[in-house]
Amino acid sequence: MTERDIKRALGKRVRLTDPKLHIAGAEYILSGAVIRRGERGFYYQAELTDVKCGHSLVYAPLENIERSEGACQQY
Question: Going by C-beta distance under 8 Å and a sequence separation of 6 or more, which residues neighbour residue 61?
């Protein structure tokens, strides 16, 4: 997912694949994006809300996020 896709995907289902966390294709709701400044400059992170437990948040790099097939469903 790119910075441009964030606005279109806000509040919709996305899939997270992160081999470091052993997550493969888990569905979340894109609830926001955070811009941070690191040693190599600025970078974005996605704020994801768990579909099953709305109080659980995950922060992940945009490279690990893709839109879900049911992305037209808003929450």
Answer: 43, 44, 45, 46
